[in-house]
Amino acid sequence: MKRKDIIEELDKESGIDDWKLIDFTLLHSNLYIGRDGKIDNTLESERKEQLVTVYRHFDDTTGEFNFTVGDDLKKQLSDAIDICEYVKNPKYEVPDKTKGYNSRLRLADSRIVRNMKKGNMQRELMKISNRILHHIRHNKAQLNMLELHASSREINIRNSKGVDVDSAATSVYVLLTITKGEQEYVNFFIVSKLDDIKPKEFVEKCTKYVNDISVAVPATSFSGPVILKNRALAEFFRPHLSLSPAVGHASGRLSYMHLSKYVKDEEIVKEWRGEPLTIISNPAIPYTPESNICDDDGVPSKIVTLVDKGKFKNYFASSRYSQYLGVTPTGGIGTIQIGCGKNSSEAICAGDRVEVLEFASFAPNMVSGDFSAEIRLGYLYKGKKKIPFRGGMFTGNVFNLLEDVYFAKESMMKEGYLGPIAVKFMKGVIAGLE
Amino acid sequence: MQASDSSIKKILSRCIDILTSKGHYADASYKYEKDMSVSKDKTSLDAEDGFDEGVRLRIFDGERFRDYCQSGIEEKSLLKHANFLLKTAQRNIPRKKLELKIDTKKLKKSFKSLGKIDPTKITIKDKIAICEKTHNNFMKSKDFVNVRVMYRESITKSVFVNEYKQLSQRLTRVTFVVMPFVKSTKGEIRYHYKAFYKPGFEATNITRSDIAKVKEMALKVRKAKKIKPGQYDCFLTPEVSGLLAHESFGHGMESDTILMGRAKAEEYLGKRIASDDVSIIENPAYPNAHGTLFFDDEGQVATETYLIKNGIVTHPITDQYSISKFDKDNKYHLTANGRAENYDHKIYARMTNTYFDKGKDNPKKMLASIKNGMYLHYSSGGMEDPKGWGVQIQGIVAERIKNGKLTGEVFYEVGMTGFLPNILKNISHVGKDLSVPGSGFCGKGHKEWVKVAEGGPSLAIKGVHLS
Description:
The complex is a heterodimer.
Chain A: H1 3-12, E1 18-33, E2 39-57, E3 61-68, H2 73-83, E4 88-90, H3 110-118, H4 121-138, E5 142-159, E6 164-180, E7 183-191, H5 199-214, E8 217-218, E9 222-229, H6 230-237, H7 245-248, H8 252-256, E10 279-282, E11 304-308, E12 311-312, H9 319-325, E13 335-338, H10 345-348, E14 353-359, E15 370-382, E16 385-390, E17 393-397, H11 398-402, E18 405-407, E19 411-414, E20 417-420, E21 422-431
Parallel strand pairs in A: 8-16, 9-14, 13-20
Antiparallel strand pairs in A: 1-2, 1-5, 2-3, 3-4, 5-6, 6-7, 9-21, 10-11, 10-13, 11-12, 14-15, 15-16, 15-17, 17-21, 18-21, 19-20
Helix pairs in contact in A: 4-5
Chain B: H1 5-19, E1 25-40, E2 45-60, E3 65-71, H2 75-91, E4 107-112, H3 124-139, E5 144-161, E6 165-183, E7 189-191, E8 194-198, H4 208-222, E9 230-236, H5 238-249, H6 255-259, H7 265-268, E10 280-282, E11 305-309, E12 312-313, H8 320-326, E13 338-339, E14 348-349, E15 353-356, H9 363-368, E16 372-378, E17 381-383, E18 390-402, E19 405-419, H10 420-425, E20 427-430, E21 440-444, E22 447-455, E23 459-466
């Protein structure tokens, strides 16, 4: 349905007090390469969706209902008006028109947009895959599979109070698996621009890791300094399946549900024995898949300091929950930026210790902070020996570990994480397989 | 649901006529997924009703599949893209063609899942009411900081057409989740999660006894401690045994994973991995489970597959392309496991309902035989490692067993690890109970989410690494 026709229907319907329309188009172009380096599958797709939210305001409450626009919008609106009678929450207002958008923030690679529209994206992806395959051969690595997924997304968010914001973003996701002997290494990254893909560095890193995994010994139990690096570190602060407990407790919604342990201007852990943690949500880094101009309500996204030197400072909150909590809405969450420390990575990574580079998957309990994550690649440093190991679990509680932590002063950016290249937890526990 | 099955089949058949006009294999599928949800907790009540509808056209050029996917079912656009796909396939005809395994048995059939109460006949008002009632039941007690009750209803309609088949199915899935939050003795917030699944609105008919069990477990979680890492003799409930079957073994039996050289299971095909008592089944035809389907996204009609039969690694689960390329000796058949997250995602070999087969042992006697060990109640998830066969199951709630009895000493957020063949070899008893209670989603790595269930009988395993 045409956007203007939907808006006309929404404006015409007298039973609706406020509305929101999200109209988006998502184009995909994917390439799948098998073990023999040949293409197994190609996929091109065009997805269009229009999502409507209807609001009704009562004395002390607001009724809200969301639905996808179908063929009979009139009937859907009539149903939604009725449903708002039952889906009531404490009263809140729909966000007003505002000028606070970061109009300079660039999230779409014009090369991807152009190639998607012209149907040439497969050719671009083949060029990249050929470069990756070249480096795999050069590094004498054994390919298992390679996938490249390019996407281009355009979104328009409007509401009855004049919010009208467009945003466009692109991304390329690259997934590679290589094998050495009996072991494999799975690596992936996501970027916004084709120029940010660095096949040589990517393949070299994968090769180094798979070589180490292939000679890794089974994990033995260890208690003491555990240093996280690489993807293990990024996942610790930005897990794939949920928010990190350290970030999640800054959620306005969690606080409103009485589930957050954070109290404004108070320390987030009992005592800081090491360096206190700083967490910033930064949605304004150009050409970063986690960046965004606004949230789903069209509220401009802001850089927000969630935790500053160990103390909780600000919630990230949608328009509705910010009204409930009496705070400013923050828009969408962005890259999780962790404050760097005073000492170099070299200084931090000294003495007998364990360094973990890769987990199978880091999936902490977002509310309690407890976790147990299987290690895919780690190193045990004992005297002058560096022993690669795999298996076993890094286990503990995120908040307890943060009480005694040191951050490297050098930084890295990886999958929604921007922060120190190494973080040392003084009281780490590895449960081994002996 | 706007278009009728017959009109959809007609449009897809016209696309197939174009795609197969030069002798290529091709298929066309339509998917409509309607998801309605209600969520109620102490502070908020939310409801939404979304749907997703689209078509996939696929052509095989002798070397690879080429997919085109679009939202909706606009015939003009689909015919245009069918012509374009054919033209592209014609440009790239390989010298040596891969012979694709195809089920050429002609079939025209419609299927419908067998729930007792059609949720689309229940008003949203009633769905909200049942969430509120359950929520209020918990909140009467001061033991709970908050309770989140979630109602999720999913109606999937899919239509598949190729030269041989015209199939349609309607799958109804309802999940009712109760998630009480408690404050631990140390003052931290924890939660217990219990999902009730049925293929109809009857999923919400939970009994007083069900509620009492959820409350009891939540209160146990409140007092739970962190486990001392080590090896324990364990009793696994069907929830946990199912996750072991799914994450640790099932992923390694996916034919596309085997084709890529990513599966240790390839070395074990036809060989023993466990005792005679151990069998693992992958079964999209298991009645009324969360992963149940009548045919997969490649039009293969659902049947059960033994991944392990009496301790021997037997048969992979397949998608058309990978089994055709991997199985040059024609030892294996197509199974109904070609699944895609949605109409605009690639089809991979994926699990549906995966479980250990039931054995002969009485679960009560199995528990009684454990002198000192852990009872693993449930877990939150896991991660596959098909090449290394490392095990990661996390979020387990465990309870100490002493002299064959549960002690009430509970451990929270426990992880299970180890080397899969060792764990399978250490299975000492397989229960005669069997249930497939899972109601979750499975990813391939961190993407491509599909609905699955896991389960099995109770298992007793010696020397499991817990931390």
